[in-house]
């Protein structure tokens, strides 16, 4: 094995390790948001609501949603779909399992007041933002949610920011409808959801700066 090939393999191994670390951080962010009870991030709102009226766990519902999004990408892009994006499937399985593990690991935490709920919510937002930055820095594969947004951009020639907002709003609306329909109340979508929609991206943007230097040096 020549030096160049060995270097490429080492780089990919490091990037996938970084991706797994990012997924773990994001999963704990989701778990903290659930513990806070102030609403999860838009991407997690639908799986959380589904887990509330079905036997599915949050992680399993997340996997189901990601699989659905992968199928929608294929149907939307058809021949334009790049088979390499099927790597989103094992990533979804890992992220779903990590989410359930994180929820289990934090089961001993009890939220006793509204201020404490916000503390947990902020921790969750920060962790999700950091995890997203790790995922972006790894640069090997996107989660199915981002993959769906990119597919919409490619199919309908819309800007990523507009497609992202539309995607998040769609998930929140679906979560709200299902919540009222099956639970008779609003669950999983609250002020924390709005805070996450605004602050996760801002957090990731700030973390991206040192992460770029990290990538240049180690990846």
Features:
single chain; 219 residues; mainly alpha; 8 helices; globular
Kindly describe this structure.
The protein is mainly alpha-helical and 219 residues long. The chain has one domain. The chain has eight helices and no strands. It has helices at 3-36, 42-53, 58-77, 88-105, 114-138, 144-156, 160-183, 191-218. Helix 3 (58-77) runs parallel beside helix 6 and helix 5 (114-138) runs parallel beside helix 8 (191-218). The radius of gyration is 18 Å and the shape is globular.
Which SSEs are present, and which pair or pack?
Blueprint: H1 3-36, H2 42-53, H3 58-77, H4 88-105, H5 114-138, H6 144-156, H7 160-183, H8 191-218
Helix pairs in contact: 1-4, 1-5, 2-3, 2-7, 3-4, 3-6, 5-8, 6-7
Strand content range: under 5%
* Mean pLDDT figure: 93
Shape: globular
Largest sheet: none
The count of strands amounts to 0
Q: Which structural class do the helices and strands define?
A: mainly alpha
Low-confidence stretches: none
Count of DSSP H/I helices = 8
What's the helix-strand series? HHHHHHHH
Number of domains: 1
Fraction of helical residues: over 70%
How much is the radius of gyration in Å?
18 Å
How far apart the termini lie comes to 20 Å
Keywords: Membrane, Transmembrane, Transmembrane helix
InterPro entries: YczE/YyaS-like
Transmembrane segments: 16-36, 56-77, 116-144, 165-183
Protein name: DUF6198 family protein
Offer a concise description of the structure.
With 219 residues, this protein is mainly α.
